């Protein structure tokens, strides 16, 4: 769909892009909200892995937008070198909180600091969270961490502050190849709904029963769960050591 | 399909529950087991364990005072721990824990008050000044000691002890439940977990009580009471058998009939972590003590007896570690296994645990030097709760020597 349009807008410049996109994708959802849904929006994302080039622009945009402390990430693009039939290639997999329909993190939170909003976004109230880390254990996707500054659980919010201002999440807006599409799953006319209706999609760790609301196009089965392979670099491992010194 | 995968960038989180959590689980286990041991006397009236009943109660209590300190200190926001009380969330086992952790120590404290009341009352009769008032307070204001009041204390102690049994089971069972519900961690996600925790708690608790009896309890002739120790040794052996049976069920069903993710757990326990999980934990921590406790000839080699008891305690500690930390070393999404070595200082450091042990030992010394836990006999031989107990002491004076 609107990849050409988006790329064009990248060229036009960020300011114009923001306005145009919010009038485009997110704007369409708010229009849809008025007409089609009594329930309001249900936010979701589709990541087209055929388009992702692993540039980590989303990682950087998210970290800047949400001021994530060094060594922690709300979104990241896992990168792999895959050899099949003797031929090596790169495989990249953007990861973020799936804002699951049946979020394991919400169930176990002892204080209800983690909860799901009516628009489906799973959020943490960091004035209530006690930092017990139970949600981190329960999330099958490693989507959470304890923020060393707030000492509470932290994770992707779908950039709710931006959505509420009529903008797109920072990662979506910055994605150079238009691999990330965000919108209202309740609105059949939204870009995400149209993708879901026309292209086969997959989710990560389906058997966990969490019903993720981040969908992937072209997800290789070998990467949908725990990846079996050799590990060469683990930035989070380094972050563990940094944590005390922050 | 893919021949080889090399993970270049992955930020999956690693060990979030550090040293404090296995320590907490270990201590609540000790508490539950020690409490159950005390009920043998106070609820079931088995006089053979009478000389350690009071001590067990003190262990159960002091350990449970020390354990949450460590847990609270481990929270990101320790100052907010109280908010657990009014933000109750029914689907979170951690949320129930707060209520268990608040009611269970109160229950033990109350039971201790009734179990020790007569002895406090007597002390207040002989003490003077401030101390008199203090003992009076501990005797719940009633300094009378008659067969009637003793029968009443005994009755109330029995009721409290009876309520305490399910509470003690819950207070430790819930810690296993906390892990059991986490579907995302294949090693934790088994409904056997609360039971495995309870039975291994019995192993560590009975072993600790054996050790404490060896150090602190003397029979009427002022000697180590080996007949008591042997009986506890048999109890230890049975607990180990229970533990091994549950392990067998867990591992065999997991490895042969469960989802693929448990295969990783198998690779971890029986491969990557073989030394810790199999040699040390199962071999030295369970099998060796089992053999020594069940073969009388070996059991009578007393240094070996004590050594294996200590090994059993460490074995359970290691089990808690291997489960809580080990479970987190199997990445949820990343490749390979993680490694974890705790720091020395800091919130997640080894000193945190040593400090916690220090707290417990301090509480324990305070309580045991202050509370009249020793089985009183000899010159003022009728110091126990009721007539039956007095009788039992008299019986045993004959039997033990
Ligand atoms: S991805 Fe993890 S943190 Fe996000 S909603 Fe699902 S379970 Fe919760
Ligand atoms: S860390 Fe915070 S949000 Fe997560 S389970 Fe604990 S209290 Fe809830």
UniProtKB/TrEMBL annotation, chain A:
Molecular function terms, GO-annotated: 4 iron, 4 sulfur cluster binding; metal ion binding
Superkingdom of origin organism: Bacteria
One Pfam family recorded for the sequence: Fer4_11
Gene3D superfamilies referenced in this protein's UniProt entry, alphabetically: 3.30.70.20
Residue span(s) of domain 4Fe-4S ferredoxin-type: 43-73, 88-119, 120-149
Alphabetic keyword roster: 4Fe-4S, Iron, Iron-sulfur, Metal-binding
PANTHER family: PROTEIN NRFC
NCBIfam families hit by this protein: DsrO
Name of the protein: Tetrathionate reductase subunit B
Source organism (scientific name): Desulfolithobacter dissulfuricans
TrEMBL record, chain B:
Any GO CC annotation of this UniProt entry: plasma membrane
Gene3D superfamilies in the record: Formate dehydrogenase/DMSO reductase domain
Spans annotated as Disordered: 377-401
Domain of life (superkingdom): Bacteria
Biased amino acid composition, Basic and acidic residues: 384-401
Record InterPro entries: Electron_transfer_protein (IPR052049), NrfD-like (IPR005614)
Entry-linked Pfam families: NrfD
Keyword tags: Cell membrane, Membrane, Transmembrane, Transmembrane helix
Keyword Cell inner membrane: no
Keyword Plastid recorded: no
Membrane topology per record: Multi-pass membrane protein
Membrane spanning residue stretches: 24-45, 52-73, 93-116, 159-180, 192-212, 232-253, 273-292, 304-321, 353-373
Subcellular location: Cell membrane
Family recorded in the similarity comment: Belongs to the NrfD family.
Name of this chain's protein: Oxidoreductase
């Amino acid at each position: 769909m609107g990849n050409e349009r988006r790329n064009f807008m990248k060229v036009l410049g960020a300011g114009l892009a923001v306005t145009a996109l919010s009038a485009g994708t997110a704007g369409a959802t708010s229009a849809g909200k008025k007409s089609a849904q009594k329930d309001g929006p249900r936010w979701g994302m589709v990541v087209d892995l055929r388009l992702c080039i692993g540039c980590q622009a989303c990682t950087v945009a998210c970290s800047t937008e949400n001021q994530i402390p060094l060594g922690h990430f709300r979104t990241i693009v896992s990168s792999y070198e895959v050899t099949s039939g003797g031929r090596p290639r790169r495989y990249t997999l953007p990861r973020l909180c799936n804002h699951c329909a049946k979020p394991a993190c919400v169930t176990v939170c002892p204080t209800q600091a983690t909860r799901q909003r009516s628009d489906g976004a799973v959020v943490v109230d960091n004035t209530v969270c006690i930092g017990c880390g139970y949600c981190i254990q329960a999330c099958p996707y490693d989507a959470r961490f304890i923020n060393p500054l707030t000492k509470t659980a932290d994770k992707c919010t779908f950039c709710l502050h931006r959505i509420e201002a009529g903008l797109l999440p920072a990662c979506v807006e910055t994605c150079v190849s238009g691999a990330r599409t965000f919108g209202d799953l309740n609105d059949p006319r939204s870009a995400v709904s149209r993708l879901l209706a026309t292209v086969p999609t997959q989710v990560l760790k389906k058997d966990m029963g969490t019903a993720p609301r981040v969908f992937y196009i072209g997800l290789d089965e070998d990467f949908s769960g725990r990846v079996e392979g050799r590990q060469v670099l683990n930035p989070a491992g380094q972050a563990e050591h940094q944590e005390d010194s922050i | 399909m893919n021949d080889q995968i090399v993970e270049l960038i992955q930020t999956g989180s690693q060990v979030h529950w550090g040293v404090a959590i296995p320590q907490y689980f270990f201590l609540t286990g000790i508490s539950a087991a020690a409490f159950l041991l005390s009920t043998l006397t106070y609820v079931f009236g088995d006089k053979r364990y009478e000389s350690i009943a009071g001590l067990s109660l003190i262990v159960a209590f002091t350990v449970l005072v020390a354990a949450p300190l460590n847990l609270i200190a481990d929270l990101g926001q320790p100052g907010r721990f109280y908010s657990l009380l009014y933000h109750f969330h029914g689907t979170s086992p951690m949320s129930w824990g707060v209520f268990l952790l608040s009611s269970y120590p109160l229950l033990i404290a109350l039971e201790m008050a009734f179990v020790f009341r007569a002895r406090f009352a007597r002390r207040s009769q002989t003490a003077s000044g401030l101390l008199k008032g203090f003992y009076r307070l501990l005797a719940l204001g009633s300094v009378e000691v008659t067969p009637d009041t003793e029968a009443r204390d005994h009755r109330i102690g029995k009721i409290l002890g009876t309520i305490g049994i399910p509470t003690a089971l819950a207070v430790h069972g819930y810690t296993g439940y906390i892990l059991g519900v986490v579907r995302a961690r294949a090693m934790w996600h088994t409904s056997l977990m609360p039971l495995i925790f309870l039975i291994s708690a019995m192993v560590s608790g009975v072993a600790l009580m054996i050790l404490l009896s060896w150090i602190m309890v003397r029979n009427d002739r002022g000697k180590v009471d080996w007949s008591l120790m042997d009986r506890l040794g048999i109890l230890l052996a049975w607990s180990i058998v229970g533990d091994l049976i549950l392990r067998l069920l867990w591992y065999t069903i997991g490895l042969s009939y469960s989802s693929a993710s448990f295969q990783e757990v198998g690779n971890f326990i029986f491969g990557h972590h073989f030394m810790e999980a199999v040699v040390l934990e199962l071999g030295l921590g369970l099998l060796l003590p089992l053999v020594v406790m069940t073969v009388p000839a070996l059991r009578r080699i007393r240094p070996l007896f004590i050594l294996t008891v200590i090994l059993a305690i460490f074995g359970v500690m290691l089990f808690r570690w291997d489960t809580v930390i080990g479970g987190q070393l199997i990445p949820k999404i990343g490749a390979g296994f993680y490694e974890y070595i705790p720091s020395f200082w800091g919130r997640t450091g080894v000193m945190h645990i040593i400090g916690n042990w220090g707290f417990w030992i301090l509480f324990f010394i305070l309580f045991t030097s202050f509370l009249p836990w020793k089985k009183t006999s000899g010159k003022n031989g009728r110091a126990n709760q009721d007539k039956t107990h007095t009788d039992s002491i008299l019986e045993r004076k004959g039997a033990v020597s």
